[in-house]
Amino acid sequence: MSASVQDAPLLPPAPVRGSTLARFLDSDVYASFRRSKLAMGAFAVTLVFFLLALAAPWISPQNPYDPAQLELMNSNLPPLWYADGVAPFTLGTDDQGRDVLSAVFYGLRLSLVVGLLGVLVSGTLGILLGLLAGYFGGFVDTLIMRVADVQLTFPAILIALVVDGVAKAAVGSQMDTNAAIGLIVLSIGLSFWVQYARTVRSSVLVEKNKDYVQAGRLIGLSSPVIMVRHVLPNVLGPVFVIATINLALAIITEATLSFLGTGLPDSMPSLGTLIRTGNRFLFSGEWWIVAFPGLALAGLVLAINLLGDWLRDALNPKLQ
């Protein structure tokens, strides 16, 4: 007996668990990403927009919001490929002498910041309410879902307009830039939380009846600990898809509010404010003031939407 044990081959050591990056590179999601040229292209375009926004202070020919760098003599200059074009204004200037290319870079920055913060607020609120509704059920579930049903009857842009209008009526229309950004982020966050809440609630209703939740209750874990540490990680897959798609919706909502004059102030305009400003000169021949911010907004939203569509299909087990 002892001889057979000694002659038995040694088992290989247990494999060391790889890093998070290694597991991701070996996952089905990454394999699906590599197979989809459209997803790779959308990711590349989105990454370029993010890098341009981050590097705006270093790559822009001028700071378009610094009055010391603006000259009215440079107003309404055409793009550089026109005979009247002047360097370094590659895409021309607006009526205040601001370089359009620089304004687009800085506008991208503000639009992405507002969009990301809006998604963060709406996602946090929606996930929290969805967890509470799905885990506790009863009156809590009924109350949260009826509020969600009522909000679904109104367009998101209308909710944002109402929140923005009520806040400005309460504190006054004169706000600094930070307060204006915070208000529009809050407006977007209160407009898009419903999708997160309904999705998380549906997933929690399934997860809370599984053995690991019952085991957590038996060993005395509190409900908040079970929800946050054990249930939440298992319901985040659909949330990532919603967040990606809602990022594009949040940017569009911010641009719409700014175009209507209820968004960010003219002193720190986003892409929506630049489009509103350039729209006044569209029929007078200065088409570049509105065209290039509009193209940047369209390209950014399209790339994010395509990325969100791919992520939705990649995380759908029925399509694997």
Automatic annotation (TrEMBL):
The keyword Nucleotide-binding is assigned to this record: no
Task: State where it is primarily located.
Answer: membrane
Q: Which Pfam families match?
A: BPD_transp_1, OppC_N
| PROSITE patterns (UniProt xref) | ABC_TM1 (PS50928)
Tell me where it resides: Cell membrane
Membrane-crossing segments per the record? 38-59, 112-140, 177-194, 238-260, 281-307
What topology does it adopt in the membrane?
Multi-pass membrane protein
What are the residue boundaries of the ABC transmembrane type-1 domain, all occurrences included?
108-308
- What are the entry keywords? Cell membrane, Membrane, Transmembrane, Transmembrane helix, Transport
Family note: Belongs to the binding-protein-dependent transport system permease family.
Any idea what this protein is called? Peptide/nickel transport system permease protein
Species this protein is from: Methylobacterium goesingense
